[in-house]
Amino acid sequence: MENDIIFTPLGAGQEVGRSCHLLQIRNKNIMLDCGIHPGLSGVDSLPFIDSCDMDTIDMLLVTHFHLDHAGGVPFILTKTRFKGKCIMTQATKAIYKILMTDYLRLGSKDSNRIMFNEEDLEQSLKRIQTVDFHEVNEIDGVTITAYVAGHVLGACMFAIEIDGLKVLYTGDFSRVESRHLCSADIPPFKPDVLITEATFGCQNHESQEVREKRFITMISAVMKRGGKCLIPAFAVGTAQELMLILDEMWEKNKRFQKIPIYYCSGLAKNAVMKRGGKCLIPAFAVGTAQELMLILDEMWEKNKRFQKIPIYYCSGLAKKCMAVYQTFLSSMNNRIQQSTTTNPFHFRHIQNLKSIDAINEKGPCVVLASPAMLQSGMSRELFERWCTDGKNCIVLAGYSVEGTLAKHLLTDPDEIVAMNGQRLQLKMQIVSCSFAAHVDYQAASDFYLKLKPEKLILVHGEANEMARKQTALVNLFKKEGQETEVFSPKNLEQLNINIDKDRLLLLRGTISEKPLKSGDRLEGVMVKHSAYYRLISPEEILKYTGIKAHNHFQTIWHVMESGFENLKFNLCQLTNDVKIDQLIMNVGNSEAPAFKVTLYNDDMILYIYTRSKKVALCYQWGPLQDIYADCIAGAIIHANLNPLPIKTMLKLEEYNYVPSINQVIIDHNFDDKKMEE
What we know:
Distance between the termini: 32 Å
Number of strands: 35
GO molecular function, one term: 5'-3' RNA exonuclease activity
Number of helices: 18
Domain Beta-Casp: 289-409
Low-confidence stretches: 265-273, 672-677
Domain Metallo-beta-lactamase: 17-234
Largest sheet: 7 strands, mixed
Subcellular location: Nucleus
Protein name: Cleavage and polyadenylation specificity factor subunit 3
Radius of gyration: 37 Å
Shape: elongated
Strand order of the largest sheet: 6-5-4-3-2-1-27
CATH topology of the largest domain: Rossmann fold
CATH architecture of the largest domain: 3-Layer(aba) Sandwich
Structural class: alpha/beta
């Protein structure tokens, strides 16, 4: 059916990772995100893009820069037949460039991992178009609006409208305002289809205040016992949030200010400091890391005793991304924008660590290191170095995907297998304190109830968690009297959704300026442009469609075997507006016409050549005029085959007009007035 919306997960269908979905509305094909799977490598990490024709995709919408949502973009833009537009926000594009450059650098050590090169990345950047938040963009018949998602800097939800059908794709989003990001918007419309994440299923997060207090207390304890605190985190995103917390904490605690905070994509906390331990916070280089840095910096600022304890971040990637964070302050919340002192991302107590060997192994410290899931790299190396010492602590501050070491640590194992195959005793304290900027069940439910979508599609979640959430939402909507169908498709499972909705006819130009009331009649040319129908004044077709009007004149020659009187008699049987003008023939010119006959409101002109017995039928092409031409041709042929004696023919003024053409039009369900117009 024409109203069908077809949705197919190409990735992140009952799984977390390689988010990519194909959305088909009317005659438009839109790809939503294109990420890679963190637990796979090379082409195996890509979504199932070979299941669709890439040259039919009209556009690719990228919600944010995390690799599981954007890591496949360079491949799509340079290694496939994709010819459409790629759209993301300005901040997302800025950090995307940095992240993908780092991805290439790391992948250079493994030829099987690399799917594109630096030149491909540069070419992909040229093809990316950016949009601003809340700006309505009409692109090839698709209306796109980006709303704040609150997940990481630049993350957006995409509202998509085609021919009156409205779809909202949230990507990853958070309804809780962090130390530096706004909470997700609630778009001001009711979507027909809502496509949203189910990362945490039916779980509810602790409040921001409780979470930060627990984080700070734990860091303090580790520092006091002389331990080391490792915070594995994404280099961009939560890391920045944690840095703000730590920097503030160190500022307030003078005794901590001699304890270093290192950021190699990780962070630290209070309880670890008090026992003189080391605190490792594995984190994504962008996202969680920035949030954690804000917390730590504030914590160190308030605790003078901590200010001798270093906080390190050892990620060149995060350092580069920090410049983007310092640039896009206007995209953050009021707390950041209204800061009356220095830029909050100019940390006072957090220092970049260029080499892992620069860490003081004898004293306590806090280290933020990537990757967040401890697959390899700096966070894995530090974890293996510190995991056998009970004074130390690792803080898992983000979401952990199945099949990663970070997920395995949540099962409290007694030992782990190192990268070199050696078995290591696990004595290190393991703390889960999620700063993952994903919506929990309560906030998600409130979001759905406010939007009241007709259909809700869950993606980006593990199969069991997603099934539980689907069941819970069905019961919730039933209880609230809300008629919303809930789906949770697997990868490549196609959903055919019908929305009972009338088509929209958009008025353009002078037609749209007329005041209208119910029952008014509008006249114009209806143009199907992309997925929309538009009504335009004939005089404005060029202005609004770019279509130039061309006059096509036809001249059809016929033989007149029976003489002009017979032809004249037959023509007058067709219509009552036959006009005949006798022309002055040039002497000796046998090709000059003797008569000019006009009929059908002067649309059709016949030139009668009596000497050569020919008739030239001339007219400007049109669908109605073609019907007239066929009728005139029939009259000429009939006159040739069935000539009548002249004495039996009536005089012109006595001819009885039979509205035969009009009757033919009516019989074929044509409106002759509309056809003439």
